Amino acid sequence: MEIVAMAAAHVPQVAALETQCFSAPWSQASLASELDNPLALWLVAMDGGQVAGYVGAQSVLGEADMMNLAVAQAYRRQGIGQALVKELVKRLSAGDVHCLSLEVRSSNQAAQALYAKLGFFQAGRRPGYYRHPTEDALILRLEWRS
Q1: Which of 38, 51, 79, 136 is 20 to 30 Å apart from 2, CA to CA?
Q2: H or E element: which one contains 5?
Q3: Degrees (nearest 5) of the Cα angle 33, 1, 3?
Q4: Which of 59, 21, 117, 88 has the alpha carbon at shortest distance from 140?
Q5: Rounded to 10 degrees, what is the CA torsion of 132, 133, 136, 139?
Q6: φ, ψ for residue 72 (rounded to 5)?
Q7: What positions carry a catalytic annotation?
């Protein structure tokens, strides 16, 4: 497994995975536009020519917000999500970014356990943030320097 920066060739597979994993997926066009966004960093975990998972973030003024993290069903429970987040933090921290925030469904216990293992803490809650179904989001945050 190799983690690399997302390129145009990865976008169709990332969009397909987005559709499989989320009730409100990003479009292929939206994902492709992130390649030209100077505030964005998207990484893909590659198994040969197959996208096994991906993570994306946008950074402003030293703070990053994770857009999405997904791992294909066949690759879950193999540490790929953890590796993607660790690599994202490594690359963000090499610049001027000092923290990473994200929203996660309040019912998504598996994701919450992963983020807790990585040192994230709950910083807040967004009532009714998610649709299909409507659900609160927990705001999680990781800080590595001030």
Answers
A1: 38
A2: strand 2-5
A3: 35
A4: 117
A5: -50
A6: -60, 145
A7: 103, 115
Only one residue has tokens 């000092």, namely 98
pTM of the model: 0.93
- Say which residues have a Cβ less than 8 Å from residue 23's Cβ, sequence separation at least 6: 130, 131, 132, 133
**Inter-residue contact 36 to 45 (CB < 8 Å):** no
Q: What length is written for the chain? A: 146
**CB contact at 8 A, 15 and 28:** yes
- Yes or no: say if 70 and 33 are a contact pair by the CB < 8 Å rule: no
Quote the distance between the C-alpha of residue 87 and its chain's center. 11
Domain housing 7 = 2-143
Q: Which residues pair with 108 in a beta bridge?
A: none
What is the total count of domains within the chain? 1
**pLDDT tens digits, one per residue of 6-57:** 999 999 999 999 999 988 899 999 999 999 999 999 999 999 999 999 999 9
User: Position 134: which residue type?
Assistant: T
